[in-house]
Amino acid sequence: MEPGNRQENTFAEIENLLNIGIALSAEKNLNRLLEMIVTEARRITNADAGTLYLKQQDVLHFRISQNQTLKIRQGGD
After folding, report:
1. At how many degrees (to 10) do helices 30-45 and 3-26 cross?
2. DSSP SS3 for 66
3. What residue ranges in the chain does DSSP mark as E strands?
4. pLDDT of residue 9
5. Please, which residues bridge with residue 51 across strands?
6. 76 to 3, 42, 51, 63, 72: CA distances (angstroms)
7. Which is nearest to 76 in space by CA: 31, 40, 36?
8. What pLDDT, in 10s, does the model give residues 38-67?
């Protein structure tokens, strides 16, 4: 990758992360927020699937699961 392209890609990634941060901070519905977090984390990492648990005291509680290959979306809205 040429230096100019690498710089442009880095700038685009930073700008995209900024837009994600703005969208996350604007979301008031917890389920939609958690779903957005998993969706964007999967997109950024190019992951096929993702699961989110919330820890309350010493217990993990399942909240969101997404799997592109299996076409599964659980939890959230």
Report:
1. 170
2. strand
3. 49-56, 59-67, 72-75
4. 87
5. 65
6. 41, 15, 11, 7, 12
7. 31
8. 999 999 899 999 999 999 999 999 999 999
Q: DSSP state, 71?
A: T
CA-based nearest residue to 44, from 24, 29, 30: 24
State the pLDDT at residue 76.
Answer: 79
The string of pLDDT tens digits covering residues 8-17 is 888 888 998 9
C-alpha 40/C-alpha 20 separation (Å) is 8
Domain residue spans of the chain: 3-75
Contact 77, 64 (CB under 8 A): no
**Sign of the dihedral through C-alpha 29, 32, 37, 40:** negative
Look up residue 49 and give its amino acid. A
DSSP three-state, residue 47? coil
